[in-house]
Amino acid sequence: MPLSTNDLDAILLTLKLASLTTLLLLIIGTPIALWLTRTESWLKRPVGALVALPLVLPPTVIGFYLLVSMGPNGFFGQLTQSLGLGTLTFSFTGLVIGSVFYSLPFVVQPLQNAFEAIGRAPLEAAATLRANPWDAFFSVVLPLARPGFVTAAILAFAHTVGEFGVVLMIGGNIPGKTQVVSVQIYNHVETMNYAQAHWLAGGMVAFSFIVLLALYSGRSGKTRAL
């Protein structure tokens, strides 16, 4: 049975959401991971725990508090309304914000591990050559931490594609606007349309397997190189 127009729209919207979320997470997660790697502040553990919170919280809990905060009576909702932007709930922008919060640890933790593996010696050597912090990051840290960036990007993209609870709470179920693949599968199951659900669910299984295979293949290649 071919995919319906709503199914195709959900797939395209999911890919758009995952791509934008991954880009934003790499921009946001990199300085956080660097700070967690280098700081000696007492805030390191609380911040690390806060970043990792989505790993243990139910997605509906995160979605609920984001929904409240971005709603018309919430702090961020009142702020966006005062700026003339309206509320971000039940919008694509709201989905992006929720996805960034929910997938943050899947970017920060791989990057933090990569930065810790580099150590301080290469940066100290760069400093002796009078490299400024930006030069040291782009010429030393970025190339050495490339496997960590690849892992972080793959995990963020895949995790965003598989979201359900957060996106449903924040975005609802608006075709062409907030209806992503996971929500569309739920719709098909709810209406007993198992044939259509199989098409989308089977695609998700294949996608997840390919992602995991790529991750494990990359790690195996790195281990052999060492």
Automatic annotation (TrEMBL):
<comment type="similarity">
    <text>Belongs to the binding-protein-dependent transport system permease family. CysTW subfamily.</text>
</comment>
<feature type="transmembrane region" description="Helical">
    <location>
        <begin position="47"/>
        <end position="68"/>
    </location>
</feature>
<dbReference type="InterPro" id="IPR000515">
    <property type="entry name" value="MetI-like"/>
</dbReference>
<keyword id="KW-0813">Transport</keyword>
<feature type="transmembrane region" description="Helical">
    <location>
        <begin position="194"/>
        <end position="216"/>
    </location>
</feature>
<dbReference type="InterPro" id="IPR011867">
    <property type="entry name" value="ModB_ABC"/>
</dbReference>
<feature type="domain" description="ABC transmembrane type-1">
    <location>
        <begin position="11"/>
        <end position="217"/>
    </location>
</feature>
<keyword id="KW-0812">Transmembrane</keyword>
<protein>
    <recommendedName>
        <fullName>Molybdenum transport system permease</fullName>
    </recommendedName>
</protein>
<dbReference type="Pfam" id="PF00528">
    <property type="entry name" value="BPD_transp_1"/>
</dbReference>
<feature type="transmembrane region" description="Helical">
    <location>
        <begin position="12"/>
        <end position="35"/>
    </location>
</feature>
<comment type="function">
    <text>Part of the binding-protein-dependent transport system for molybdenum; probably responsible for the translocation of the substrate across the membrane.</text>
</comment>
<dbReference type="InterPro" id="IPR035906">
    <property type="entry name" value="MetI-like_sf"/>
</dbReference>
<keyword id="KW-0997">Cell inner membrane</keyword>
<keyword id="KW-1003">Cell membrane</keyword>
<feature type="transmembrane region" description="Helical">
    <location>
        <begin position="88"/>
        <end position="108"/>
    </location>
</feature>
<keyword id="KW-0472">Membrane</keyword>
<keyword id="KW-0500">Molybdenum</keyword>
<keyword id="KW-1133">Transmembrane helix</keyword>
